[in-house]
Amino acid sequence: MKMVCAIIRPHRLQQVKEALSDAGVVGLTATDIRGAGRQKGQVERYRGSEYSIDLIPKIKLEIAIEDDQVESVIQAIRSAAHTGEIGDGKIFVSPLEDSLRIRTGERGENSL
What averages of pLDDT result for each successive group of 10 residues across the chain (112 residues)? Predict the structure, then answer.
């Protein structure tokens, strides 16, 4: 099993969810986060004054999947989240040692 963690732009969430659904993903967790990377923040204007926003709002998706779904999930996220501009996000893939469905006690891939 693998854990896919994706950091995406908030306005791309709906497109990414639809692409993941088409790729066969049945569950995910989405969290509002703030972060900084190569984008290095942005300068905003409010009532004539400039101020810097160092941490940009993003969405963090966490998806537990079977090993054979990794490439299709990565491609679904990339194609739906891509704008071609700096700040599109990142995808991380980690091994997932175990999983347990609390309601039934199922473990491993059966719990996904």
Answer: 97 98 96 83 70 84 97 98 93 97 94 90
Q: How far is CA 109 from CA 2, 49, 67, 81, 88, in A?
A: 10, 53, 9, 27, 30
pTM of the model: 0.85
What are the distances in angstroms from CA 64 to CA 3, 19, 54?
Answer: 5, 16, 30
Q: How far is CA 89 from CA 1, 5, 54, in A?
A: 23, 11, 16
Backbone angles phi, psi at 47, to 5 degrees: 50, 45
Query: What range defines the domain where residue 17 resides?
Result: 2-42+50-111
Say how many domains are in the chain.
Answer: 1
Q: What is the CATH number of the domain that holds 67?
A: 3.30.70.120
CA dist 104 and 58 (Å) reads 34
